[in-house]
Specification:
The protein is mainly alpha-helical. The relative contact order is 0.07.
Amino acid sequence: MKKRNIILFFAALVFGFMSCKSTPKEEPIVEQPVVPEPSMTDSSAALEVAKAAREAAIAAGADAFAPEQLGDTDSRLDALSVRSSNGENVDSELADVTARYNTLEQYAKAIATKNRIDELDFAKYAQSDYDAGNESLNTLLSLAEDSNAPVSQMLAEATAANMSFSKALFTAFRTRAREERTAAFTAKRNADSVYAAVAEKTRYDEGVQLFRDGDASYAMQDVERAYNNYTGSHATFEKLFEEISEKRALAQQAIDEAKARVAESAAYAAQADNEVPLEGDDIKGIEDVNAVLLEETAYDDPEKAAEELPETIIDTIIDAAEAAK
C-alpha cells in the first residue's frame, strides 16, 4: 500500500511537471506606430470656376484685346492645375486667377463698347459717361504696369470702365432712336400726302410695321433695336414719297401736255366751225350728247387708307446702367 502511494505521487509529480512545461510563455505585445496618410485637398470646384471665368474672358474678346495678359493668366492657371491634381490646397490662388480673368473680361467689353461709340460718333450724346470710361481705362492701364497692384482694384476699374461706356452707348442709342422716330413720323406724313397707302400699299405697310416694332422695342428699353426699326421706317416712307412724287410729276406733265393738245384741238375745231359749221343733231361720227361712254367707277377715299400712328411715345425713365447689364 505504501509502495502504491509512492507511485501515484511520483506520477502526479511527473504529470504536473509536464503540464507546466507544455504551457507557452506569453510574449509582450509591441504596438506599431501609426503612420498618417497624406491628406488630399479637393480644389476642383475652384478650378472649374476659374476655367469658366477664362471662357467668359475669351468670349468677350480678351484674346484680341489683351493677348499677353491672357497668356500670363493662363500660365498661372496651368501651374495651379498641376498643384491641385497633386492634392495641394490652391483655392486662394485660384480665386486670384479667377479675378484676373474677370478683369480681362470687363476690360475687353469696355474696349469693344468704346470702339462702337467711336465708330458711330456717339460720344457727343453722353460725353460725361464717355469721359468717365476713359478715365477708368487709364487708371486700369497704370495699375497693370505695377506688379504689386491689387487684382481687386484692377477689377474694380475695369468694371467701372465697362459700365461707363455701356451707359454712354445706351444713352446715345436712346437719343438717336427718338430722333429717328420723329423723322419717320414726318416721312410717313409726307407719304400720306401722296396717297402712298394706295399707290404702294405693301411697302407702305412695311414702313408702318417697322415704326410699330420700333415703339415696342423702345418700350422694352431695347433702344438699339428701336433705333434700327425707326431708321428702316424713316427710309421706307422717305423713298415712297420721293418715288410717288416723281411719278405724280410725270403724270401731271402728261396731263398738262394733253390739256395743251386739247386746247389746240378746240381752237382748230372752233376755227373749222366758223368756216364750215355743222348743222343738225344727227351727225355721223359724233355721239349723242346724252350717251354714256364709260361706266362710272367708285373709288375708296385714299385718305382713309392711311394708317394712324402716335406722334409721341411715352419715355419710361430707367437706370441706364441697369439696362446696359
